[in-house]
Amino acid sequence: MNIANFPWLTTIILFPIAASLLLPVIPDKEGKTVRWYSLIVGLIDFALIVYAFYTGYDFSNPDLQLVESYPWVPQMGLNWSVGADGLSMPLIILTGFITTLAILAAWPVTFKPKLFYFLILAMYGGQIAVFAVQDMLLFFLVWELELVPIYFLLSIWGGKRRQYAATKFILYTAGGSLFILLSALTMGFYGDTVTFDMRAIALKDFALNFQLALYAGFLIAYAVKLPIIPLHTWLPDAHGEATAPVHMLLAGILLKMGGYALIRMNAQMLPDAHAYFAPVLVVLGVVNIIYAALTSFAQRNLKRKIAYSSISHMGFVMIGIASFTDLGLSGAVLQMVSHGLIGASLFFLVGATYDRTHTLMLDEMGGVAKRMPKIFAMFTTCSMASLALPGMSGFVAELMVFVGFATSDAYSSTFKVIVVFLMAVGVILTPIYLLSMLREIFYGEENKELVSHQALIDAEPREVFIIACLLIPIIGIGFYPKLLTQMYDATTVQLTARLRDSVPTLAQKQEETLKVSLSAPQIGN
Asked: How far is residue 157 from each of residues 28, 31, 270, measured CA to CA in Å?
């Protein structure tokens, strides 16, 4: 068989799902065989991802590649259609990387290990499918599929309030998904031809009012997953009860689905409506940055503090998507990948710290740096990455969004100055709450009861290896961003050109921007 014609994406999606079905029949009482089996499956699938893109993907081509399409339910017009471009390819690689490390992070799991790893591997394939499918109905199905494993991972292996957190998660996300289904069906049946192929739908001539209604529906759905305030409250609760590997999947991959879908569906398929909604996205992005940063500063629970930090960083993604510049959109994609790496590393370290201290309350910590120097060093380094220290990926991503938005000609000078100033305030708040967090955990007076605990030992080699794997791309991208941006620049440049073409004239856009910007703060509040 010709390697170029091999169904790479289908194999990458279905392999971990098929492998998970064998877990119940593997003879293993203590879970040791199961975890090695799951890790090998994760490594094989990640190797397939890297090999497929290394051999069959052309960075200079902005269009879909590795395209596969097979009739699935032809009576409904439902096809198994997958493909990858610059928007999806980096996130597929990120999914394979983070999930494989999450499997390694789950090494201490001893309660129902077969079910735990079954859910992890099933979600592995489902999350990759979200970034790869090119059929609207199929997108809805895989979007729903990956919700089920998260629900059980929270409700079975979570903390004391795990049932509440899991129920809240499923209600928020499933409720938002209804808007995806309604919008997808409406778009598919619009016009003379019935089709759910995303490329065909993007070519349909939707009326402006129709686009605006569809855009609003999609925005509600993706606002839950991104998340956008005020539809964010499920995330701190979910993170507050999750285990370390589930943290890594939530922060590293799940939030990126909202940003990806916002670009794929809203901006790419509804460009005229995007011109009108973009100022609203900017205002909501600023609200995310400032409100979540202030809320994070006030949190005394370590997991909830990092969770609100994640919400704050996602605000830069929204502003980059709404910038109408190549640099801003490129920064938004880079921020998604960067935060996936940084968020996963921080939440893994939070889990490692909890395993030793048996507390998440900052008031009960203090003075553990001498007892755990390796964890102290890793936690400090990852926190520096989160606060956008130069030389780290977060700095490059946020700087690109800053400059991209500041140089955009789609907004008035006054609006840009206000937004850039508020973004800068958010950037200033970030080191305040992160450095104060480090001080309360590792410095200050020792909690005698805490430091005398027998479990207060330093990081083991497995934990150091996981953080090292995450820090290598964080620092690598920080010093040489082209490592990542060259993978998607052709696609983002093409998309930005289309978005700018959707604006009739600059004067009209300025008028609409001023109207929406005056009313948008009411939405944010």
From this structure: 20, 15, 40
Q: Would you say 274 and 516 are in contact if contact means Cβ atoms under 8 Å apart?
A: no
Average pLDDT over residues 47-69: 91
The answer to whether the peptide bond before residue 227 is cis (omega within 30 degrees of 0) is yes
480 is written with which tokens?
């040489």
Q: Which residue stretches of 387-452 are H helix? A: 393-406, 413-442, 448-451
End-to-end Cα, the chain, rounded Å:
58
CA dihedral of 252, 254, 256, 261, whole degrees rounded to 10: 160
Copy the structure tokens of residue 426.
């958010």
SS3 category, 213: helix
Q: What angle is formed at CA 103 by the lines to CA 20 and CA 105, rounded to 5 degrees?
A: 155
Q: State the DSSP H helix or E strand holding residue 52, giving kind and residue range, or none if neither.
A: helix 32-56
pLDDT in tens, 362-404: 888 888 888 889 999 999 999 999 998 999 999 999 999 999 9
Looking at the chain, the whole-number percentage of residues with pLDDT higher than 70 is 93
Residue range of the domain that includes 399: 3-524
Q: Alpha helix (H) ranges present in 242-386?
A: 244-249, 255-261, 268-269, 271-298, 302-321, 326-357, 373-386
Q: Please say whether the beta carbons of 317 and 468 come within 8 A.
A: no
Tokens of 394: 């977060």
Record the pTM. 0.92
CA-to-CA distance for 314 and 330, rounded, in angstroms? 14
Q: What is the three-class DSSP state of 67? A: strand
Average per-residue pLDDT for the chain: 88
Tell me if the bond preceding 431 is cis, omega within 30° of 0.
no
Domain count, the chain: 1
Sign of CA dihedral 101, 103, 105, 107: negative
How do residues 7-44 score in pLDDT, each as one tens digit?
A: 999 999 999 999 999 998 888 777 788 999 999 999 99
Span 341-354, average pLDDT? 92
- CB atoms < 10 A from the CB of 62, how many? 19
Token pair belonging to 369? 């740096």
